[in-house]
Amino acid sequence: MPFPSIFETSTTEECLNRLEKLANETKPQWGKMNAAQVLAHLNVPYDAANGKIKLNPNFMVKLMMKLFIKKVIVGDKPYKTNSPTAKEFIISEERDFEKEKALLIANITETEKHGKAYFEGKISSSMGALTSREWDVMFYKHLDHHFIQFGI
Q1: Is 2 domain-assigned?
Q2: CB 95 within 8 A of CB 40
Q3: Is residue 63, in this structure, part of any structural domain at all?
Q4: DSSP string, 56-118
Q5: Among residues 51, 71, 54, which one has the least CA distance to residue 118?
Q6: How many whole angstroms separate alpha carbon 55 and alpha carbon 44?
Q7: Does residue 4 sit within a domain?
């Protein structure tokens, strides 16, 4: 299944329109995180890609990611419901919904502005160098997965 490009204005608008339908009170159809926690969770890959946070997986984790998990993350199939999440992406403490939403909006729009060239060959701390299309799929697919989780 081909995913829309997060580098296209129309995709950014679609994602932001869907995000506007999410409320702090919206209940997930699966999973343990509430809406504010999911927004914080969605910010993690953007923050890692842009150097705002540092993820330091060990050698074995990197090897497993490259050999087995990368194709799930950047592949053409949607994520399964209740898929396991890396510990760095688990948000268990309460978060401020509006703050996390504003950060996610900024991350989505910043990613579109950076464009494909910025992400081509950019290093992922857990998967090594990725193509711009791999970054593109990872960002969109992750957003879409959690938007579906919350019925938006």
Answers
A1: no
A2: yes
A3: yes
A4: ---HHHHHHIIIIIHHHHHSSSPPPTT----GGG---S---HHHHHHHHHHHHHHHHHHHHHH
A5: 51
A6: 10
A7: no
Distances (CA, A) of 108 to 41, 47, 53, 65: 14, 11, 16, 24
Structural domain of 137: 9-149
What is the pTM assigned to this prediction?
Answer: 0.93
Coil, helix or strand at residue 128: strand
Tell me how far apart the alpha carbons of residues 74 and 82 are, in angstroms, rounded to a whole number: 18
The token pair at 119 is 């992400």
- Tens digits of residue pLDDT in 93-141: 999 999 999 999 999 999 999 999 999 999 998 899 999 999 999 999 9
User: Alpha-carbon distance 43 to 36, whole Å?
Assistant: 11
Cα separation, 35 vs 41, in Å, equals 10
User: How far, CA to CA in Å, does 51 sit from each of 94, 123, 124, 146, 147?
Assistant: 23, 11, 10, 23, 25
Number of domains in the chain: 1
Does residue 3 fall inside a structural domain? no
- In tens, the pLDDT along 62-99 reads 888 888 889 999 999 999 998 888 888 889 999 999 99
